[in-house]
Amino acid sequence: MDKNKVFLLLGILVLLVVGLGFVGCRSIPKNMEPVGNFDLQRYLGTWYEIARFDFTFERNLSQVTAEYSMNKDGSVKVVNRGFNYAKNDWQEAVGRGRFRGSPTVGALEVSFFGPFYGGYNIIALDENYQYALVVGKDLNYLWILSRTTTMPSDILTEYLILAESLGFDIDNLVWTLHSKEAS
Fold it and tell me: What CA–CA distance (Å, rounded) separates 48 from 148?
């Protein structure tokens, strides 16, 4: 086989591998859709974490907040903050978010680690932008957020039922404590 055919076959192989990699990478779980008619300006500001799945990067955190604001380049500044009760210290992570497509769809990607982005998908949001249900790229990432440290039981129940119907194991939720004593 001559060199040109070898390079052509290698090129095709590389394209196939890369193409399959992109097809396999989803930023939202199957059968889920982010909210439409999304207004980022109304979403900006402080959100309190009501519940989450237990992630190593949030382990032992209480009083967790996420604050969203605009960067000069049009991306979203993300500041996640929580009190680590095991270390008796505040932790903060600053990241950058951007839309994956249309800015009227609640489908973003967020990075806290350089060029690596993860899905941030708002799949439920009340009309007043007070309560949100957010999922990541798969069934291992789920957050329930509120503009205050509490949430009405009817909305919480609605979000839990929705999450469970989509395949999330809501028994694994960690309920975030919010208290003044630890601040």
Answer: 6
What is the spatial distance between Cα 147 and Cα 96, in angstroms, rounded to a whole number? 20
- Distance in angstroms (rounded) separating the CA atoms of residues 45 and 78: 10
* E-state strands within 104-164: 107-113, 116-125, 131-135, 142-146
CA-nearest of 153, 178, 154 to 52 is 178
In angstroms and rounded to an integer, the radius of gyration of the C-alpha atoms of the chain is 19
What is residue 102's predicted lDDT score, i.e. its pLDDT? 97
**Predicted model pTM:** 0.84
* Structural tokens at position 105: 């769809």
CA 125 to mean position of chain CA atoms: 14
pLDDT confidence of residue 79? 98
Pull the structure tokens for residue 129: 């932008």
Using CA atoms, how far residue 45 sits from 20, 66, 70, in Å, is 38, 8, 10
Element (H, E) at 63: strand 61-70
Low-confidence stretches of the chain (pLDDT < 50) are: 3-25, 181-183
Q: Look at residue 114 in the predicted model and tell me its pLDDT.
A: 86
Write down the pLDDT at residue 26: 62
